[in-house]
Design brief:
The complex is a heterodimer of chains A (298) and B (470). Chain A has 298 residues and is of the alpha/beta class. Helix content of chain A is 45%, strand content 11%.
């Protein structure tokens, strides 16, 4: 009898997620897209920002508090990228499910990061003590993050654990095949020199062998100044620069200014899912990024 | 018999390779050997033994090959993980500009288990300095209908350090968060360090509830819970000065609840000791002030965000700074609308904000100079401000604010004149951590006086990277 009750209770508990889908709040579109790959329609997903917003500088606005309040799990970049707003959202929403533990998932903290500063000094701009957090354009890291996220989804929603596992396997297969395709396609980009707007491309550069020779921001997070831009003209010209890279959310004026004076084309990359028409999901994001980079040669 | 196989006496690795080669040779030669008619039986046995040995060697070579292949695959996997985790030197030519130094995958900060500083609270310091030129001597400043209680008066002339503060915050454990803010102020040439806020918050209450206890700024209205350094102007609106002595903070408790709805909906209430203006004397056994507040907010499309609220503050005052004793209720309504292209408020856009105050008093006025002379004080006073701030780009913003107070025609401090003020400001942000602000104010505190104020202010925030409320 006791065992029957226990069994009944366990079944009852297991059945709870069946009534309401887990609610996931993703801070950035790339992690929203990853949740979709792994969970499909098994979860209710809301994404806090879009590709045309600077995620360093989002406000802890009421609509976001309301979303975090309802979430069972948050999936964000971490490494202090959202330090200006996420702590406030967590604090104000009063939702203890997502402030720590299984409901708190920081993508960049699942993988090794690059550009860990040896000296922390705000005179060097808006640097992140845990390293560069813009990990979404390294497909190997994305895969690692996916593998770390899947068990967390399964813990949150045990009833659909098998689905998450199966979707991860499926994603892994398709992603690995895509990596091969992208690497083959992007081979001509190896060694090409680029100037970037903000230092948000280090993972893409490292993966594809692009060489960053300069940044439009004099220091990370400090807007481009005319003095600094002028100082870039000579370097950009003499180095045989391939392209000037900016993200869809960034002001393209500084890049265009430098382009006009050096003849080096500007390439506006989507940077995240939704950054252009082609970047409807993670695969599209990479397809578009590589196509646009290759297109600079034409 | 094959000499190659037997003479293999080289170092292990080389020998292995040579043996493989020998085996191959033997494998090719063995049919030929079979034809050797002069081979004796013992030799045939030897050949057989050798063949067996070759077979064993071949097997072990195959196994090694397999292991090698597996190892290679593993290395490949590690390499892919690592190429990404290391800055290839090639990507850092001498010409590199503004690229951060390639840092080795440094030690985890958490590794310092023996480091007692690892649990230090986040510390932020806000420095604020100002130069202000007032056309009216602050000693002669009289606000019609509103006595100057709390920090309601105009700021000092000349150079001053305004609200410089040190804030410490940290999670206490898995269920509590704590924050303390020390403020430094100067009064009559003497420096005072005060405890502006010191409270704990719960972090683990279920269902959107949170509880706060200690000393803190009340959540009524919009600006009240915000620290002055987040304001868009260098001084608080007149209504805050007149009705709350600049900002209401006291010792007490707060309960908040956020509704699980798509529209932001927050309800809460507070109970305070009531020592500070507009209360005074900690009436009602040290729990003389009660507040209620509700806020609602959301988005309209991607470009617009809004927040609105209503609040009340009720106090049983015993010996208020303005001589009031009795019941007071203050009603506040606040409204904020932000428009920014793409929701990128830091890069441009307009913020409009307005708050309305309505105060009802029912009690007695005792002249602070001669308490024997008392008279009834019941009546209503109101105040409002509206401000618009235009974010020109990430570095510049400009704003205009209009303030107005309506004095009471009856009772103590009765006045037919209603004070008003215009303020204009221009601020330059070098980063989100530093700001310089120029402000012009034209203040009409009473029918006879005009205070023209020009102020130049700087603000620097250093230490922990704080997150701001909306």
């Amino acid at each position: 009898m006791k065992r029957q009750i226990a069994l009944f209770l366990m079944l009852g508990l297991a059945a709870v997620p069946a009534f309401a889908k887990p609610k996931i709040f993703a801070c950035e579109p790339e992690w929203g897209a990853l949740v979709t790959e792994l969970a499909g329609d098994k979860v209710d997903l809301s994404v806090g920002t879009n590709a045309l917003q600077d995620v360093h500088q989002i406000e802890a606005k009421p609509s976001l508090i309301a979303k975090v309040r309802q979430a069972d799990m948050i999936v964000c970049t971490g490494s202090e990228l959202e330090v200006g707003w996420l702590p406030q959202l967590l604090k104000q929403s009063g939702n203890s499910r997502v402030s720590s533990g299984n409901g708190y998932f920081m993508a960049s903290e699942q993988v090794p990061t690059l550009e860990r500063p040896t000296a922390l000094d705000r005179a060097n701009g808006d640097i992140h003590p845990r390293g560069n957090p813009h990990v979404q354009l390294d497909p190997y890291r994305v895969l690692k993050i996916a593998k770390a996220l899947e068990p967390r989804l399964a813990t949150l929603d045990p009833a659909n654990a098998a689905t998450y596992q199966q979707r991860l396997n499926d994603f892994t297969t398709r992603w690995q095949a895509a990596i091969k395709r992208w690497e083959a396609k992007a081979a001509p980009l190896k060694g090409k020199k680029i100037v970037v707007h903000h230092i948000s491309w280090v993972y893409l550069n490292t993966w594809l062998g692009l060489q960053q020779i300069g940044a439009l921001e004099p220091k990370p997070g400090v807007p481009p100044t005319s003095g600094h831009l002028s100082s870039l003209i000579a370097t950009t010209k003499s180095a045989g620069t391939y392209a000037i890279i900016t993200a869809a959310y960034q002001d393209s004026k500084p890049a265009n200014w430098l382009s006009e004076r050096t003849g080096v084309p500007v390439v506006v990359l989507p940077y995240t899912v939704g950054g252009d028409a082609q970047s409807k999901d993670l695969f599209g994001l990479y397809d578009s990024t590589i196509d646009k980079l290759l297109g600079a040669a034409k | 018999m094959n000499p190659y196989c037997l003479s293999a006496r080289a170092p292990v690795a080389a020998r292995f390779r040579r043996t493989l080669l020998a085996c191959a040779v033997v494998a090719v030669l063995s049919p030929t050997l079979a034809f050797a008619q002069d081979a004796s039986k013992s030799e045939a046995a030897k050949v057989e033994a050798l063949e067996a040995r070759i077979k064993a060697l071949e097997d072990s070579a195959a196994a090694t090959q397999q292991a090698l292949q597996e190892a290679r695959a593993e290395i490949e996997e590690l390499k892919t993980a690592q190429t990404a985790s290391q800055q290839p030197e090639a990507a850092q030519p001498e010409a590199a500009v503004a690229q951060e130094e390639p840092a080795p995958p440094a030690e985890e900060p958490a590794s310092g288990a023996s480091n007692p500083n690892a649990f230090n609270p986040a510390m932020g310091v806000i420095l604020n300095g100002m130069y202000a030129a007032h056309s009216l001597n602050p000693d002669n400043y009289v606000r019609a209908g509103f006595p100057l209680a709390g920090e309601a008066g105009p700021g000092p002339r000349g150079f001053s350090l305004g609200e410089s503060e040190i804030a410490l915050s940290s999670n206490v454990d898995d269920k509590f968060y704590a924050q303390a803010t020390l403020s430094v102020g100067t009064e009559d040439g003497e420096d005072h360090v005060g405890l502006e806020e010191a409270y704990i918050d719960t972090t683990a209450l279920p269902d959107g509830f949170s509880l706060r206890a200690g000393r803190f700024f009340s959540n009524i209205g919009y600006l009240n819970s915000h620290h002055a350094h987040t304001d868009s102007f260098s001084d608080r609106p007149l209504a805050y000065q007149a009705f709350l002595g600049n900002q209401y903070g006291d010792d007490g408790v707060q309960l908040r609840w956020v509704a699980p709805t798509d529209v932001y909906l927050e309800f809460g209430g507070e109970m305070f000791r009531g020592d500070r203006f507009p209360s005074g004397g900690a009436g009602h056994a040290g729990a003389g002030v009660k507040t209620l507040f509700a806020h609602v907010g959301g988005d309209v499309g991607v470009d617009n965000e809004w927040l609105a609220g209503v609040s009340t503050l009720r106090s049983q005052t015993d010996g208020g700074e303005d001589g009031f004793r009795g019941d007071e209720t203050l009603y506040l309504a606040d409204f904020t609308w932000k428009w920014a292209p793409g929701g990128n408020t830091k890069d441009g856009g307009v913020t409009f904000r307005s708050e309305y105050f309505w105060e009802n008093r029912d009690g007695i006025y005792a002249d602070p100079n001669d308490p024997a002379l008392d008279q009834p004080w019941s009546g209503q006073r109101t105040g409002v401000y509206g401000e618009a701030v235009w974010r020109i780009n990430r570095q510049w913003e400009a704003g205009y604010r209009y303030d107005r107070l309506w004095a009471d025609d009856n009772g103590p401090y009765a006045s037919a004149f209603d004070p008003f003020r215009h303020s204009l400001m221009l601020a330059w942000h070098n980063s989100e951590f530093s700001m310089v602000r120029l402000q012009f104010g034209r203040d009409r505190p009473n029918a006879d006086d005009t205070d023209n104020v020009i102020s130049l202010q700087y603000q620097a925030v250093f230490g922990a990277h704080g997150a701001h409320k909306f």
